[in-house]
């Protein structure tokens, strides 16, 4: 076993000076396969028994230390955490869920042989609960890969955790790209979530331009060869903006005939959901199966409109076009630049009458921001009214008022 033992007081210093650990295949760089937060006795057992798979890290401490550590560092694929002696373990699990990345499978270790606690932890998304005293056999069985009937290895937890939100404009120029990019920035910087912003228009997309970032080539090839898609490949072709936001797009020659299959869309977002809390997608208004698929598999579908009749007409047509998609009720309307049309625009009552739905969010028309917002995706950082509107949209998307499902549930 290749393990490292770290004293609690040495964690901060060790993180700054330790040599980076090479990621194993198909695991994103910087993300360890296993980290254990345990007491001295369990640590010794893990070392003596050599049961931890792959490269791993052992840190002395319990769930409190795990929360502190993972709020600053990337989460592992598998997390062992000691909850012994914790008065409110479910509350601590909630806090741990807030700092963990999607795709993290959690095994809790405790000293209470309580069936009700075990069920509560499972409901919270914890993959397994081990009761002390631990033995080598118990740890080996708990850490062994689960297999299906054909003998193939299966993951211990559902990896499709991140929430996918697809944006589309009812017509050109309503600001769907601007809102998608600002929402992605807001979730990453105001909600401290790991966010992937995906621009599926790989010839004319603007998402990278909004962040004044160069586009990293590779998305076209990845979509053409979906079997090659994995976390390492995507990490190489994404452009990083800050600590938690990653942009994926393309600038393919406009004279090329670029096309990819719906299966490639499935493969792309399956991998992204295992690595990010939110995957925000800017979908072109082009009626091809691949773009439709980006709406079919989304958790939330955002149709951006303005107060014009042309926008209402096309919004109704989009609603009908996606009406046969399973979970079509997940579609929401966002009214952008409210008040821009003045007395010539449709009223909110008229909009509700046409759409047969009330816009979930309304972004005010701020004349001084029109040009700025069209060129920068960080307007929400400095402009209060615009930022508040984006924040309200983020609350709607995140579902913060609903009961949180953790770890093996979709991110909220």
Name its key features.
single chain; 412 residues; Rossmann fold; 2 domains; 6-stranded parallel sheet; 17 helices; disordered N terminus; disordered C terminus
Structure description:
With 412 residues, the chain is α/β, with parallel strands linked by helices. It folds into two domains: 5-154, 3-Layer(aba) Sandwich (Rossmann fold); 163-398, Rossmann fold. Helix content is 37%, strand content 18%. The strands form three sheets. Strands 11-12-10-13-9-14-15-16 form an eight-stranded mixed sheet, with helices on both faces. It has a six-stranded parallel sheet with strand order 1-3-2-4-5-6, with helices on both faces. A two-stranded antiparallel ribbon has the order 7-8.
- Tell me the total number of β-strands: 16
Approximate helicity band: 25-40%
Beta content: 15-25%
Let me know the largest β-sheet.
8 strands, mixed
- In the sheet with the most strands, the strands line up as 11-12-10-13-9-14-15-16
From the spread of the alpha carbons, the general shape counts as: elongated
**How confident overall, as mean pLDDT?**
81
Total discrete domains: 2
Q: What is the CATH C-level name of the largest domain?
A: Alpha Beta
């Amino acid at each position: 076993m290749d393990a490292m033992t770290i004293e609690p007081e040495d964690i901060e210093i060790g993180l700054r000076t330790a040599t980076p650990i090479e990621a194993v295949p198909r695991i994103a760089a910087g993300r360890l396969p296993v980290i254990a937060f345990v007491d001295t006795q369990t640590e010794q057992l893990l070392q003596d028994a050599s049961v931890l798979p792959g490269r791993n890290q052992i840190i002395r401490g319990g769930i409190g230390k795990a929360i502190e550590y993972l709020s600053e560092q990337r989460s592992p694929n598998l997390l062992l955490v000691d909850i012994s002696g914790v008065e409110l373990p479910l509350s601590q699990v909630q806090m741990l869920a807030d700092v963990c990345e999607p795709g993290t499978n959690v095994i809790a270790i405790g000293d209470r042989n309580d069936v009700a606690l075990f069920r509560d932890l499972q409901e919270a998304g914890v993959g397994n609960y081990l009761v002390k005293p631990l033995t080598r056999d118990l740890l080996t069985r708990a850490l062994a890969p689960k297999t299906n009937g054909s003998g193939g290895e299966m993951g211990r937890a559902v990896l499709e955790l991140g929430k996918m939100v697809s944006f589309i404009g009812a017509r050109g120029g309503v600001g769907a790209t601007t809102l998608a990019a600002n929402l992605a920035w807001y979730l990453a910087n105001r909600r401290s979530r790991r966010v992937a912003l995906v621009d599926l228009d790989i010839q004319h997309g603007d998402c990278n331009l909004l962040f004044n970032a160069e586009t990293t080539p590779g998305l076209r090839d990845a979509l053409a060869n979906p079997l090659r898609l994995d976390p390492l490949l995507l990490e190489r072709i994404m452009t990083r903006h800050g600590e938690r936001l990653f942009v994926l797009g393309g600038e393919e020659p406009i004279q090329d005939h670029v096309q990819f299959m719906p299966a490639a869309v499935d493969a792309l977002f399956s991998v992204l959901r295992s690595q990010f809390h939110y995957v925000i997608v800017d979908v072109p208004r082009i009626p091809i199966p691949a773009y439709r698929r980006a709406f079919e598999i989304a958790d939330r579908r955002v149709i951006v409109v303005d107060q014009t009749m042309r926008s209402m007409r096309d919004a109704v047509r989009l609603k009908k076009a996606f009406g046969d998609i399973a979970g079509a009720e997940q579609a929401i309307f966002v009214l952008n630049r409210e008040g821009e049309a003045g007395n010539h625009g449709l009223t909110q009552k008229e909009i509700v009458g046409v759409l047969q739905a009330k816009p979930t969010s309304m972004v005010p028309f701020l004349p001084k921001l029109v040009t700025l917002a069209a060129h920068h995706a960080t307007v929400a950082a400095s402009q209060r009214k615009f930022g508040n509107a984006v924040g309200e949209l983020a609350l709607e998307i995140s579902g913060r008022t609903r009961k949180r499902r953790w770890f093996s549930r979709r991110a909220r």
